[in-house]
Amino acid sequence: MTAARESIYLPVLFLTVALLAGFRPGAPLLLAPPSLFALVLGVLLAVVLVRSGALDPLRVMNSSREPLANMNGFTVLATLFVSSAQMFSLLTPDAGLPRVLFSVYFLTQMLTTMAAGPDRVRALRSLAVIFGAAFVLKFVVLDAVSDPAGGRLARVLQLLFEGVTFGTLTQEVHHPAAGYLAFVTIGLFLIGVSLLPAGGGAPLTSRTLTLREG
Amino acid sequence: MVHVSEATIRAAGLGITIAYAILIGWIFARQPATLAEVTGGLSSAVGAYRVDPQAFDDGLRYFRNDQFAEARAAFERADPAHRDATTQFYVAYVFYRQGWGRLYSDDDLYRQGLEAVNRAISLAPGGRLVVEQPGQQIRTADELKAELEAGLRRDASDFDPRRVLRPRK
Predict the structure, then answer these.
(1) B81 and B32 share a domain?
(2) Nearest chain A alpha carbon to B28
(3) Of B145, B152, B151, nearest in space to B163 by CA
(4) Percentage helix, strand, coil, to 5, in chain B?
(5) Do B57 and B121 share a domain, yes or no?
(6) Which of A15, A23, A89 best tests the B interface by mutation, with the highest count of B CBs <10 A?
(7) Residues A195, A76 contacting (CB under 8 angstroms)
């Protein structure tokens, strides 16, 4: 990995993702910080990336590097963590039953991905599918169901859902720009993750970490 | 082609990252609602923010003539970033005068006035704001805030018939 990528491109990209993911156009709180649960999911995602070899932390921080290079490596890891948490925050609905369901969905997905121990390519593919599915559910399906100005079918569905779920399923309708912004943010995040310094190709286990340190 | 050493790139990258992170942290903490508030907040942080004096004078003239919408538009033009305590005081004052009624006050306008006067207090040094103008009955942000809060409060005094005799300040 080049010095420019490690010290400039990746931190700036991840910070931009953190900013965009927190941006809620049209909402009373324009910039939302990550929730506590999103921080936990951010940690789990970091673990998934390390175990799959998509991120080799020893390539950006180790005792043989210069202090300045280690500082750059630290900024990569820190900004990756913050942007990961913000990504989960962005893709989780703001309230009600969907918030709980999405949180459980992300948690189980992270845990099953971790348990499956995929390699780098499979982990990145899995991440894209997880985020893509959450994007479609939140910004397309839930928005359509919650939109009071939607078509007749949407209104019928909305009434049915509200009756069945006691109004816990419908959400605040997003600003028209929110979905596009989220799409771009997901894209940027996935590009950033794919540019991370990868391991040797094989999934990184605690044993390989110990061997490399040795 | 200019050759830049790796250490220079790394140092520059670290500087850029820290500056960008501070900017993002500041934006999250301040929650600016518009781009004008972002640029105004940044320029006031370095002491470069200035209120448009012409627009402010226009706003004051409209305010004295009870032209409330015009006054608010002029004050918004004068202080688009909402960073000037005096202008925000007058924005709140406009909401107070417009929302004031002999029998009841307009809660929505009073609430907006309260937001503006709180903003003015937070911007004033030490939270103390005195605006001396001839013929003006409310001269401090604290008085204005008390008037707005009293208008929003629901209590027994709301049913006092002498209420209709109270003057608008």
Answers:
(1) no
(2) A31
(3) B151
(4) 70, 0, 30
(5) yes
(6) A15
(7) no
Kindly give the residue spans of alpha helices, DSSP state H, lying in A117-205. Answer: 120-135, 143-146, 152-165, 176-194
**Within 13 Å, how many C-alpha atoms sit on residue A79's CB side?**
33
Predicted pLDDT at A203 = 43
Q: How far is A90 from chain B (nearest CA, A)?
A: 15
Mind listing the pLDDT tens digit for each residue in B63-90?
889 899 999 999 999 988 888 899 999 9
Does the structure show a pLDDT above 90 at A188? Answer: yes
For B5, name the nearest residue in chain A, comparing CA atoms only: A3
A6/B13 Cβ within 8 A:
yes
Longest CA–CA separation in chain B, Å? 85
B57/B41 same-domain check: no
- Structure pTM? 0.71
Q: Are B14 and B65 within one domain?
A: no
**Whole domain around residue B36: which residue ranges?**
6-45
The ipTM of this complex is 0.80
Q: Do B69 and B107 lie in a common domain?
A: yes
Nearest-CB residue to A19 (from B16, B24, B33):
B24
Copy the structure tokens of residue A208.
Answer: 């390989």
What are the tens digits of pLDDT across the range A1-27? Answer: 788 889 999 999 999 999 999 988 876
Residue B124 contacts residue B85 (beta carbons within 8 Å): yes
Q: Per the domain annotation, does B1 fall within a domain?
A: no
Q: Which of B3, B4, B5, B14 to mutate to test the interface with A (most CBs of A within 10 A)?
A: B14
Q: Return all residues near A168 (Cβ < 8 A) that are at least 6 apart.
A: A96, A97
Tokens 């250490």, residue located: B7
Look at B17 and B42; give whichever has higher pLDDT. B17
What's the angle, vertex CA B117, arms to CA B114 and CA B120, rounded to 5?
155
> B131 and B68 in one domain?
yes
Same domain as B70, residue B30: no
